[in-house]
Protein: Homoserine dehydrogenase
Amino acid sequence: MNPVKVGIAGLGTVGSGTVNVLKRNARDIARRVGRPIEITHIGARRDNPACDTTGMRISRDIFAVATDPDIDILVELIGGIDTARELVLTAIRNGKHVVTANKALIAEHGNEIFQAAQDNGVDVAFEASVAGGIPILKSLGEGLAANHINWLAGIINGTGNFILTEMEEGGRDFKDVLDEAQQLGYAEADPTFDVEGIDAAHKLTILASIAFGIPLQFSRVYTEGISRITTEDVASAAHFGYRIKHLGIAKDTGNGIELRVHPTLIPKETMLSAVNGVMNAVMIHGDAVGPTMFYGAGAGAEPTASAVVADIIELGRALTVDHDERVPYLGFHTDHMSDEPILTIDDVTCCFYLRLHVQDKTGVLADITRILSDNNVSIDALVQREVDQGLVPIVMMTHEVREGDMNAALAKIAALETVDSDIMRIRVENLDA
Amino acid sequence: MNPVKVGIAGLGTVGSGTVNVLKRNARDIARRVGRPIEITHIGARRDNPACDTTGMRISRDIFAVATDPDIDILVELIGGIDTARELVLTAIRNGKHVVTANKALIAEHGNEIFQAAQDNGVDVAFEASVAGGIPILKSLGEGLAANHINWLAGIINGTGNFILTEMEEGGRDFKDVLDEAQQLGYAEADPTFDVEGIDAAHKLTILASIAFGIPLQFSRVYTEGISRITTEDVASAAHFGYRIKHLGIAKDTGNGIELRVHPTLIPKETMLSAVNGVMNAVMIHGDAVGPTMFYGAGAGAEPTASAVVADIIELGRALTVDHDERVPYLGFHTDHMSDEPILTIDDVTCCFYLRLHVQDKTGVLADITRILSDNNVSIDALVQREVDQGLVPIVMMTHEVREGDMNAALAKIAALETVDSDIMRIRVENLDA
Structure:
């Protein structure tokens, strides 16, 4: 089937991430869309060695992409406002669907852009503009569409959250952490947009419109930054049982809508307070669903590309009009199911927690550890507790082992006369990123 | 515009919740879909006083709904497998789109149902079948569609998580907590499906298919319950820095897929380990996006209805073919935007954290508390710290107050000669459900 043809304007961090994700996962993406996605044209002032653009047309003039008669979708990743606005409106007037990651553009000129898109019968998708790789706009506008949204509150600026996390965990002051964030590339040379809340206000504007069905009203967001927070404040908040987070809050009070970005004390035991470092998360409270939370990376090349490419896939599915299934029942098209084998549990490898009760005799522990060792089970930690009803409880943590080997070892240990055959074995998952 | 006509089979907990949500939020839902959603026909063996069905046709024979020529969408909420399968296939053969919350039906007969749906050119939506109100299938199949999914791990059975949470927090044993869960209505009289992991295995089957594009293979899921976990295990796990959670795990190892449900030790500091009580959460790790997590209520009348109604809205949008916008740019249709006012920050009410530095003189604190009281600010907690550079730091937490009142009070306090004018004021949000 004919590929969906994509033009990309801007080849910086997110642009190169988008090229890399579309190329690396091309096979799976074609299985999801029902036909391939092809990048045919890139507009960028300079090449970017972080991605391979072999076979793609390259223009130094980004407007050549927006007017290219050969593309179906323009992906705007140049950032900034004025040129991006002109580029997107040009693409729309040329009948292109548009995908953008540009929060400032949507928050400040979205109403105009959507009107132009409606007039020209094209779609504009902007999942990547809020909370990077978290599919928060789709979750809010589609997944929770049954609800009256009561409020939402989000950690939607990774730089700010990194600074507050470091201030709390290291007892360091704002300026000191900001310097480090700039060195790590988490903060711009001019950090105003991040630390004074403007970036978060752009994102909150977009979230609030989708939550409440109101026009985009960036100028009405109350915005306060984190630059005045001291280590004393962080410590005092902890004393009262709170953490300080920089939140964007939108709330339907019943007689008007609150839109505000500011440092906020939230109770330590709430889910949102566990969101640390550069990670983002948005809590949404709907009248039917109650509280929900969506968590993930809010920035970075590939997390943002994840959202950009999801939008391209969605438009690609919509463009694939000759197919019954817009979104296939199971996400992938039925005739593209994979026959990858399901492994038996014996082939699973993980660490184990073991609990067993043994007789209080010499040599028992030696027998057990020898059997474990013979079956490739190596012990990471072992605690022997006090004798309980004549038996000694032993708990241990193992290193990684094949489940089949662990079962063989346990069968032999359970057969020992000195060991109670009721052995408990629980798998350990570190859920490492 | 003509309403989308919905028939509902089954009027139990989720059925009545669905009726209530569709009625209560009818206006907003019509703004999202572009036309009204109308329940025209309900099939149920008996009425349910928990919802108002005035004006709806009621049949005692649920098959009368599936064959009703007047409905566009059949919503299957009867539960169970055999009759549900027959009902859904009947509806599909009659050209109806189907929405179902039935995890067992989809996990065990989904391949057959999707084939029938494809043959008849209709859609089948089942967001409510996994993790209740969390839009996890949409997030996985659409929001994260750009990714190769490396693994996912979910707390997808609220009953089991409630039991493990209570065992940990109260040091109580399995049987004791199970009895309480049965009294609270969290567990069935026969709790096998929940505590032995079958319910979670149904859900994992569905998640894995959408993650990896493989057919539904319920019979290949390795399943182990939580009934053998003791308080000793919970305490020993804590000793090693872990919590025990009952997880469904699907992992692409590169040479096959692991599908397993079992008790699992996970590090205390991971996000998933903070998910307590009957709440659900699913972590998904994609190659582009990295780790993400989706959290919310996994069961209950209205959380489940939230997902059922989201599916109805999605089908309703797809049926609204005479409209350019399938999913409107901002979730609500452009000509149905609301003009609800955005409140000024002065009208926001919340609790505050205050930090100020005052001279070490008698009467200063009295002046401050009098000004606060005169401006309707009442103090919840106050800590006076030791003198620092000639000034006494005071931090306090207030009760709820209008921001305008707080600002008026602070302006007067800052004007006192005995108070340093650099006063810090941070808002407190309890993020209460």
Q: What stands out?
A: Chain A has a mean pLDDT of 93.
